[in-house]
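QA checklist item 7 of 12: single-chain prediction sanity check.
[x] sequence parsed
[x] length recorded as 538
[x] structure emitted
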Amino acid sequence: MEKQVYLCIKMLNVFWKNIRVMAWEGCAMKQGLNAVCYEQEMHIYFERATSLMEAEVYEITLSDGQCIQTKKTNASFYKLKENTSYEVKLFLCQDGRKALLDETVFTTTAFQPRLDVTKAPYCAVGDGKTMNTEALQKAMDEADGRVVYFPAGRYVTGALTLHSGTELYLEEDAMIVGSDAPKDYLPLVPSRSEGLHMMCYQSLINVGDIDKDGGCNAKDITIRGGSIMGGGIALMERMEEEAIEFTKDYIDSLSEEGLATFDRGIDTINGRLRGRLIEMRNTENVVISNVSLGKGPYWNLHFIYCDNVLVHGCNINTRGIHNGDGLNPDSSTNVTVFDCSFDTGDNCIAIKSGRNPEGNVVNRPTKHVRIFDIKGAGGGVAIGSELSGGCEDVRAWNLDLSMSSLGFGIKTTRKRGGLIKDIHVYDSTMPNIRLSAAYTCNNDGAGAKELTRLEDISYENCVILGQGYTIFYGEENINKFEKTDVPSILIIGFDDEQTFKNIAFSNLKLKKKEHDARHSFEVDNLSGIDFGSMTTIE
């Protein structure tokens, strides 16, 4: 038996050695080892080799002798030397045996000059009361390659704009705090909200100019350390109230029937103008690392038409915020998210690509997305519902969504259109699997010419709980939890045309429920489904 296991590991080693040198066109996350390096830190991440057996672990070693064993596909090393090269090796280990999967060299960065925002001529005050917008924006404008440095303190500010080549570094006890006054996020700027281009309040941190037809116009942005918190529920409510100044003419032009197509009527229209916590538009080469984020008045990390985005080691909390998504890649490519925790007032992560009819015309899909080693409470991970531009090549693994309302799902409507393909989820725990064409939110506007198509979707080696947690909104409900039964697997296609195809499940473990089988499965209007192997667990 040992010889057979060792032979399998050797074969896997050869397999990885072969694929490691293959070019993976268009994807920023390469096969084998990847790293983001700072002066004294190195954060390693890599694609999963396979579903690990019980006795298997990864081992990552550095040439200075440091070693980490883990079942996760990331590892962080600290207290390193600046501007120093380290040989890094990745092994698969089992029963005392090791198989080398990859090896490479990564180099830490040199210390960069710092611009301290509390020093002259900026003199920002971190007392939690002083408005620092002018001082902080001056620092951003004059950084000129220096790291914009925030010592410990609470720095209250309105909207800030970052320029290409900017790095923000916040000490552990430093916090950028967004004002709760909408006037501090004016004037309105071009943005994309719930899949449509429109003028919106500025976000707390803004990068790039939106251009649906062009490439990136901002690049090389790093934000790390400390906390960035928005104006929270108070700002959310005030933005919705005061947005009527900008939406009144549009609302007055709607008939009763037209207004009824909006989920929350006038509140839906006004709510779309809210700013985000951090919004990046047409920006490439983004790293957000080891930051506590939250309390944005709407979505929190919104990447529109961006490329090569990495978010890791972050805690994102938006509980109580209506539409309080944690992270939204929106018509963006090469997005990697790992080692993050979410506690959100809507989806932890929602992958988007525009909404009908505009999104069908713009036709910019989100693709090459990797999500792994995350823990989420809130609305789980979703593709949609604004997916009119399409979505492809998504891989997700080691997701703990057991405290969420839903698992990893896809949601669309009759109007959306778009092609969703090559989506694969592995080694995860979640309340349910939901692929639904029966979604009804944000269904205003003209429909696409074709229905949404789902192709090549799979879930492998996942635990499905059949229970989730309801999301509540508002200050009074921040600490409210309510567990509810949900169908373990719910797949609803369109009733007049089967556009959901090639959906496969393998080695699913479904938690036993007191109800009969009808409460566990709801499947309708699809073709080419493979339920594979399933077992029940206590």
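[x] summary fact logged: Residues 2-20 form the longest helix (19 residues).
[ ] second reviewer sign-off
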